[in-house]
Amino acid sequence: MIKDLFFFIQKKHLVFYLLIFALILALFFSIRSSEINKHRVNYKKTDHSAEIKQMMQKANAFWDLEKNDSALFYFNKTQLLCVPKADYADDYVGALNSMVEIFQQYGNYSEAETTLIKAFPYLEKTTNVKYPVNAYTFMAYNYLYMYDYEKALYYHRKALKKAISTFRKARILSEIAFAYMHQEKYQEAIDLLEPISRYRIEDKITPSNTNIQRAAILYNLGLCYLRLGGHKEDSFKCFKESLELTLTLNDDYELIGNYYAFYLYYSKYNNPELKKINAEKAYYYSKKTKSATNEINMLAHLLEADNAGNSKKHWKVYSKKIDSLLISRKKAKNQFADIIYTSKKDKEENLELKNQKAENELELQRQKNRSFISYIVISISTFALFFITYYITHKGRKEKNDAVFESEIRISDKLHNELTTDIYDTLVFAKTHKLENLENKEKFLYNLTNIYSKTRNISRENSAIIVNEDYEKVLKEMISGYTTSNLNIIINGLNSLSWSKIDRVKKITIFRVVQEIFDQAKIISDASLASITFKKNERTIVITYADNSTKIQDDVNLNKRFATIENRLKPARGTFNVALNPNQGFKVFVKLPI
């Protein structure tokens, strides 16, 4: 510790002396200010109701025009104005709910969850039951989109307890059934949907929602009948009535789902002609509504339903659409992040200016005889603080940009290494083989599925790491994901550690280090058996990996392969060692203080 401090003084002596000087000045002014502590500035609570109402109207106007970036900006402005939040609970929660709906539309589920959590402490302070019902429902949607169906059901049930109207309760029951459908619990979903499908439940507040909801209930019920089997006529009847209701609504977006349902129906009951027709209709309406995600999904189904000649044409469009969607979502996510950051920064700067103004007025009243030397001292202090702030900010920004650049290069290389050959081989296969042949067609679809799986795995490897109470489960699932038909993995001691007592940075480091070990082992090892052991010795976690590979013969190349692990461990003061056992594979030892 002393050695590090001495090194800092040597290398950064100017910054160090300026910091000491600034601290002395700060102490001096603190003593001076304590002499006038009886003079305090009293702030009056400001009524923001009119301004909040104006911001909310602007936000909703932009939302109606589908200008979601502007809508998000004003919804965020609204929630920042709601101080104290308890006094404006309806506006605060309502604005956050609207922001969440926009985030979910663009697949930004992490930001949606963070935003919803801010609303939860104020749900009981709202005066209208729709705000907590919507908040719980959006949280359920968020977990549904992230495939955590049990948590989705939990929040849907919380929303059901809060709901008052028969219409809203029926809607939530339909959403619970939808979660059951994702779990393939079709009979449980049918048990919920059948009773509410027998009646036309009206929305007395917004009558136009009545047919929308009934069409959705019939659609879900028809899907359950279709998946469960043995209900051919029932499923067709549900799909038919749902389509008829949707046609009266003049809603092209809902028609996508209706025609997709018939595509599934005719796929199951082997009618290729009608299957293709309904796939084309679903694709047509997805293009008409400019729904990029649906357009890609429906195009994939049309690719499967159409003939070989058209399938090649659809595949080219499909590839371009996927690239375009990924780019647009990334831009939207960055844009939304900038909006939130800018709004928050504006508010903080405004508060800082108000506080500074009040302090200056107080200083002018108490120190009218301030000398010229005092102004010189304040100027030097301001310069020192500015210099330190600039230095630290510049250094942090550079480190952050370097880290982002390295991460993007690594992801790009991985995509290139793992997918280029597969995509090329798939395209060549499509050109050189007749896809109307069933065997060729199945192999072509298998190749597409394999490409999708690899892309999804890379996405998961670079996604955010869960460090809450589910960390142990997530870590175990990640390790188990490397198990193949040729490789068995034994996990020892994972549940013997008290993960809740380990800080989040150490948990992230452990997760990435273990992930890197298995990634490299997958590339360089031909092992049929691997083991990973977790132990805690006093204040140290020891992780040991071993396998029975016979492929590795060179210690030097082995150390180079695992160099990135050593770089990950340095910030956490961890150590790393890898050793080769001839004819017995290799071992990796990781020690991390906690």
UniProtKB/TrEMBL annotation:
It comes from the Bacteria. SUPFAM superfamilies: TPR-like. Keywords: Coiled coil, Membrane, Transmembrane, Transmembrane helix. InterPro entries: HATPase_C_sf, TPR-like_helical_dom_sf, TPR_rpt. The chain crosses the membrane at residues 14-31, 372-392. Residues 341-370 form a coiled coil. This is ATP-binding protein.
